[in-house]
Amino acid sequence: MQVNARANRDDHLRHTVRMRHHSTTVDEPAEMGGEDAGPTPQELMAASLASCTAITLQMYADRKGWDIGDIEVECSYKPAPERGCPTRFELVMRVDEGVSDDVLDRLRVIATKCPVHRILDGEVMFDERVERVARVA
After folding, report:
1. What are the start-end ranges of the H helices in 5-137?
2. Backbone phi and psi for residue 5, each to the nearest 5 degrees, phi listed first
3. Which residue in 83, 53, 89 sits closest to 71, CA to CA?
4. pLDDT computed for residue 45 by the predictor
5. What b/e sequence results for 72-83 when a residue is b if at least 16 CB atoms lie within 10 Å of its CB, and e otherwise?
6. Exposed, middle or buried by CB within 10 Å (0-12, 13-18, 19+), for 6?
7. 87: closest CA among 128, 46, 26, 29?
8. Furthest-apart CA atoms within the chain: distance in Å
9. What 3-state class would DSSP assign to 76?
10. Helix 41-64 vs helix 101-111: angle between axes, to the nearest 10 degrees?
11. In angstroms, rounded to a whole number, what is the distance separating the alpha carbons of residues 128 and 137?
């Protein structure tokens, strides 16, 4: 599966990002020169990891027939201070208090198997290019 997203500038730092038939506004807070019209790219990355983890856990619980109640996943991270330094993510997963220790242990393992977690944990390579066009649309 290939994933695509396209960001187009709306005004100054505010961009609209389109994925399939969805779109969202991305911006920087006022103290960074933006208008705070949407989440920052870094917040979207945390949201991607949190939501992917929650979906992965729910899908696994459904397959196993486990009732784990509502799932809440909180993700926070502080970007590495410089290139080449690791970034540490903190994931807190919350499920119903009645879930057994065995199920919690299994969910902790399954959380590391979500696609976004695997991308962030693996080797990443980039191919970048800048193209000239008559008009950016």
Report:
1. 41-64, 101-111, 115-121
2. -145, 145
3. 53
4. 94
5. ebebeeeeeeee
6. exposed
7. 46
8. 61
9. strand
10. 130
11. 19
Name the residue with tokens 């911006």: 27
Residue-wise pLDDT tens digits, 112-125:
999 999 999 988 89
Instruction: Please tell me whether the overall predicted TM-score, pTM, comes out greater than 0.70 for this model.
Output: yes
Q: What phi and psi, each to the nearest 5 degrees, are found at residue 78?
A: -120, 120
CA 89/CA 101 separation, integer angstroms: 23
The answer to whether residue 37 scores a pLDDT higher than 90 is: yes
Q: How do residues 41-76 score in pLDDT, each as one tens digit? A: 999 999 999 999 999 999 999 999 999 999 999 999
pLDDT at position 47 is 97
Average pLDDT across the chain, whole number: 93
Given strand 22-26, what is the order of strands in its sheet?
A: 6-11, 14-19, 22-26
Specify the residue for token string 């960001």.
7
